[in-house]
Amino acid sequence: MNDVVICLFASAGFDKAAQGLAGAGRRLADELGGRLRAVVIGAGADTLALEFSRLCDTVIIADQAELAEYQPETCLNALVRLCGELSPRTVLLGNDAYSQEIAPRLAYRLGGSAVGDGVEVRVEGEALRVSRQVYGGKAQAVIELKRMPAVVWLRARSFAPAPARAEAGEVTRAALDIQADTRTRVIERKREEQGEARLEEARVIVSGGRGIGGPEPFTTELQPLADLLGAQMAASRAACDAGWVPPTWQVGQTGKKVTPDLYLAIAITGASQHMAGISEAKTISAINTDPDAPIFKHCQFGIVEDYRKVVPLLREKLAALQK
Amino acid sequence: MNILVCLKQILDPEIPARDFRVDPARREAERGSANLVTNIFCENALETALQLRERTGSAKITVLSYGQPSAEDSLRKALAMKADAAALIVNDGNANPDPLTTARVLAAAIRKLGTFDLIMVGREAGDWGAGQTGGLLAEELGLPCVSFVDRIESEGGQLRLKRQTDTGWEVLEAEPPIVATVTNDEHNLPRIPKVRDVMMSYRQPLTKWTLDDLGIEANEARAGNTYYQVAELFIPQKETRCEFVTGDTLDQKVESFAKRIVEVTSAL
Ligand SMILES: Cc1cc2nc3c(=O)[nH]c(=O)nc-3n(C[C@H](O)[C@H](O)[C@H](O)COP(=O)(O)OP(=O)(O)OC[C@H]3O[C@@H](n4cnc5c(N)ncnc54)[C@H](O)[C@@H]3O)c2cc1C
Ligand SMILES: Nc1ncnc2c1ncn2[C@@H]1O[C@H](COP(=O)(O)O)[C@@H](O)[C@H]1O
Hints:
The structure holds 2 protein chains of 2 kinds. By secondary structure, chain A is of the alpha/beta class. Chain A folds into 2 domains: 4-173, Rossmann fold, CATH 3.40.50.620; 199-321, 3-Layer(aba) Sandwich (Rossmann fold), CATH 3.40.50. Helices cover 29% and strands 28% of the residues of chain A. In chain A, strands 5-9-4-1-2-3-10 form a 7-stranded parallel beta sheet, sandwiched between helices. Chain A is elongated, with a radius of gyration of 21 Å. By secondary structure, chain B is an alpha/beta fold. Chain B has a 9-stranded mixed beta sheet, sandwiched between helices. Chain B has a two-stranded antiparallel sheet with strand order 2-5. In chain B, helix 3 crosses helix 4. Chain B is globular, with a radius of gyration of 22 Å. The interface between A and B is large, with 94 and 84 residues. The structure holds flavin-adenine dinucleotide (FAD) and adenosine monophosphate.
């Protein structure tokens, strides 16, 4: 009853989010005096289960052909079954789109309560309390969950990973016979390729906002700069909504939560909703014409200039310095 | 096709951080001089619905809100954007009910309003950002749910929903009725209603119900905290001192900027 279950979609692999989730799960399980168990679902589950067996007490692979590719209703049914059988105190998920889609419904069907975007989870007497940003990152709230199990989706990348255990946990396969629920069916799935790495895993990010002025400078000015720095590209919501770059580039409260060592914000105001996505960045820097832009309140260093003048020159200087 | 769009009225999320205050004792944001606005993702949802209606030629769009009496303004604006009907459930209890309470109230109102093929909500509200109402509403109504949708088409009685994922997008085919949560994209920026339509909207009928009209546990709804409650609310203090690079010429400034960048990235 004091167990913690972490639910993972195998398609993302053993990334920083998966590791952070195990770390958060382990610390919570220790605090509760329960076991840490993992439920792994989807194609690639075997490989991921092996990684998790070093971090968890038990790992369960959802074994059914219909679950290889994510389908919302069928996948939800499988997780309800597996988590229900484990009767955990807490179920933890990551911040990915599939987890966010499923978590409240999972809580509902397990008779529990859900809360999302957690950055801290702690036990307070009988209750579980989760810290999260609210009001577009302007305030922080602590939410107390009233029903059990507590289903929490976390900013998993912000949590330290779990230590490896001396003895590998047991891996089992749960042979499921969940009926495919065909009221909704994913019929097409498209990856917007952006190099090899994912934005959430990037160590350097070059990001552009509305002040960039159009789609072309993203390709002609920012991309070459990103290439020089080995950086991934990102954008503010204003730039995405304008259709200059794909929505997958959006960083912020309702975009990607990133954790780079350097986040270079070019022509971005720094609205709280944007900053909510980069609160875990080590260093933030900005290029902006407005010295009073809120972004500078979060920067370690910055330059007040037109990016159109700065960026070409910056590329030259960086190229020279890197020689 | 019958479409229902849920709208939440919230404190203007665009007010700058320096003007934002909370009351830690009441665990609420202070209104101050901020406007009340419709949550942007609800407007994205309504815009998506309006475009769907334009493509299919025939659809009825009903908008629904649970909130303070002022939420009527959000509904009037939706009528001005050319929604067909509007209903307000007046909240005379906890002003910040938990998401399950909200979902139960909305579900009861929806049942009373009729049958719908498509129920749309925003991906999350710009105030508390719970991101749960859509999923919980689907559960209350026993319907499937598709999240982060930015475009919907209707074809031969089936719905086609394009939605955003972490790495790109997906298209789902769905059999109505379903619940969809809507996110922003370049094609669903909400239209601006004409001044004349805004004025006209105040003459249109608007259904108003109280919690007691819905046939639910009204007092439990008023308490609004059986799922979760806010234990603390505060503004985190964090100030970073920005060092602006200096120099007599642009060249010098950019030179020192480049050096700072190399400093933080060369350790990688
Ligand atoms: C519920 C909700 C959720 C949201 N979620 C997100 C989110 O996830 N991510 C997000 O980014 N936003 C989000 N927003 C939107 C957010 O509030 C801002 O509106 C948005 O981030 C502004 O984008 P921007 O800074 O690019 O544009 P603007 O605010 O228009 O700022 C442009 C900046 O560029 C500068 N500039 C202009 N020209 C130049 C030049 N030539 N050289 C240098 N600088 C220049 C200007 O000084 C200005 O600071 C959300 C809003 C709401 C209500
Ligand atoms: N009080 C409410 N009245 C109408 N719709 C609501 C209400 N609260 C939430 N919603 C809907 O649910 C979406 C997500 O809200 P939330 O789950 O609170 O983040 C909103 O964008 C609305 O569409």
